Amino acid sequence: MTDLANLSSIIGMFVGFVFTLLIFSYLLGDNALFRFATHVFIGVSAGYIASMAFFNVIWPRLLSPALFGLPEERLLAAVPLLLSGLLLAKVTSRLNKLGSPVMAFLAGVGAAVVVGGAVTGTLFPQTAATINLFDMQAIQTSGRSISAGLFNGAIMLAGVLVSLAYFHFHTRAPKPAWLQAISWAGQAMIAIALGAVFAGVYMAALAALVERLGALVEFIRWFINPAT
Amino acid sequence: MAQEPADRRALPDEEIPSPDWFGGEIPPVQPSKDEFEAEQEAAQPELPDWMTDEEGKLPDWLQSGIFISPLEQPTQASSIVSEPPPDVAETKESELPAADAKLPFKMEEGEPSPLEWLASLEAEAGEVKPGKDLQIPPEIPEDELSWLSELEATYSDLLPEVEIAGDDAGGPSEGFESEVLSPPPVEGLPSWLSDTDAESEKAPTPAGEEEDLQPAELPSWLQAMRPLGIPGEATNGVGGVETEQVEGAGPLAGLRGVLPAEPEVSQGAKPSGFPLRLQVTDAQEEQANLLRRLIESEAQPRPLPQAPILPAQFVLRLAMAVLLILPVLLGVVSGLPEFARPAPSSEILTVRQMIERLTPQSPVLFAIDYEPSYSGEMDAVSGAILGHLLRRNVYPVIISTVPTGPIQAERLLSLAGKTVGQTLAPSDQYANLGYLAGGATALAAFVETPRTYLSLDIQGERVWDRPPLQNVNSAAQFAMVVVAVENPDRARTWIEQLSPKLNDTPFVMVISARAEPLIRPYYDAAPSQVQGLVSGLTGAAAYEAATVQSGAASLYWTPFNIGLLMAVLLMFLGGVINMIAGRIVRQKRRQEIKNK
């Protein structure tokens, strides 16, 4: 078992080494090796996701209860089975109306969950957090000085306001000068935020690069001296 | 001015517009029959008596031969000698040949010659050239002929062609006056008449024969000599064919090459037509030529610019890759220079404290919710947290809303177990619930009723009957919830669906560096919706430093910092080069503006 695990690990390292080089070949331009690697990744991912969906969702939660479950489990499985059958009717133009109620149900439930979550999980809490920046008791509780807490809160509030003002829709042209100035400040805030996002993207990519280079070096070291 | 008639003659008739003075009543092209008769009556006193009858009029036979209307005149007639040669005209009557005796009349001494009217016409048309030369009436003032000069200037380019055409057609030429046209040979004509006039005049006339002739009677053979009704083409004596104007009226009717009695422009000209050539200015012609050249240049194939062997973008991309990859590779191989791991921040310390408070076998919900492409970063970050959890001997329950999440979790658990020196057993030391299908809706359902929604792990075994999970009926009953996610939107979904329902359960986000700017407000909020935050490789290295462990983050830390330094260096160099290049371009533009 240990040998087999080691063998699979070695094969995995070798495949990772080869495909890493194939992906790095894109530095020389778009080529067949790069396309071959991407096609393999797409195909493997699609196959894995299909098998995962079947063995992790369709079979254990739908087919198995419907076929081999207890009577109450079969009754419960009949509902998603019926809805799934109606959803499959969307593939034909003659029967696609049968799937519309199912789609409406999915879209309605999904929208309700997302909107409800956004309101209760983001909008209200973030609005309250912006207001609470000026809560003296909270500032004292956090251990910061009141002046520093208020200054920090003022900056946060100003950033929020000018960023919202940037998205202000004004039908009368031109914008008032004060609103235009605020919009420019909001634009600056958004630019800073996007710059931070870009820096984060670069750091994530750099971490991936370091990991791949480390894997290459590790494989080469193992290939030169397997004892290591 | 003397050359104008010849030039005007060369103009095509259809291109000559009518002048203003000519736009009123157009005089008749040819005099009518009445006018001819009036003219003839006016000329009668000059006629000799022998040519008139008792009433002083021409005999019928002579009128029928002379007054032929142009409308009645055949279009083609044979040409005869147009005028006698000068030597013949100057010859005295006594020196006339004897053939004179054959004429039906006798010329007396001292009588005016019946051909004097011809001499008078010749005197009037002395300077006018024969053929198509224009005869400008003397009563037309010269100022009114300015239109002819304008026409000459306008159609000057057509003159040579027309002149050449006229020459080729055998038209009248400068030396036409000196030519003596020969009549065509007529069958049955006596030989003495077919000879030249000089020879015939030199022939002696037998005396006494003229008394035998009947006056006012033209013999049939002489009538046959008249050129009327004979085709108008005649040889010019050298074998060429002459096409000349044939006189249609008057005493010279049927003769070829006589001088016109009226200006040619007054003769039935065709209606003026529009010139086919466009009248454009030089500027318009130049613009038209420019447009034509442009269109022609569009139709011409152009050779494709030869692609450079090494495009600038390719070189730049390769150079940046080398500048970035090579130092990082050196850092990976050598581990030098060694960078100190970052000091743990407050959120890192908070996470560590929360994990330290966990009791062994405490159920911890751990979501592996990132794509495989981010596993290089996220494995290091989540591995640091998972390793700490395993050291605390908690019971991780793995879940993922990404299809590839469960298998990534297995790999991560395997790696984390190695770091802590353990080989994890799937059922005893952790539970992998697998893929949570359904997005936000499924997540909300799972938070409420995890037992109902996911009852089996990826091995197909029941999960909730295991001892660490027996008391867990909702997400809030886990000892801790840790979500490792790289996508900001997915992270927000987790926060929105979990944070309002977790109550006092610690909620830790392990996120990618790219998601930090969007997730940090949830941590910084008061009250905070996320109690702990570990972000990126920096956060992982800090956490490992805080927990005194050495994992992947510590291994990657040195090359990671080298890469960051190279990025800063490249940005600085790029900024400097861009500034210098921009200054050079601006200087060039200023110089070009000055030069202009």
Quick recap:
The complex is a heterodimer of chains A (228) and B (596). By secondary structure, chain A is mainly alpha-helical.
Describe the 3D structure.
- The complex is a heterodimer of chains A (228) and B (596).
- Chain A is built from 7 helices and no strands.
- Chain A is mainly α and 228 residues long.
- Chain A has a domain at 136-228.
- In chain A, helix 1 (2-24) packs across helix 2 (32-68).
- Chain B has 596 residues and is α/β, with parallel strands linked by helices.
- Chain B folds into 2 domains: 4-266, no CATH class; 346-565, Rossmann fold, CATH 3.40.50.
- Helix content of chain B is 42%, strand content 6%.
- The longest helix of chain B is centred in the C-terminal third of the chain and has 44 residues, at 552-595.
- The radius of gyration of chain B is 62 Å and the shape is rod-shaped.
- The two termini of chain B are 54 Å apart.
Distance between the termini of chain B: 54 Å
Strand order of the largest sheet of chain B: 5-4-3-6-7-8
Which two chains form the greatest contact, residue counts included?
A-B, 48 and 65 residues
Largest sheet of chain B: 6 strands, parallel
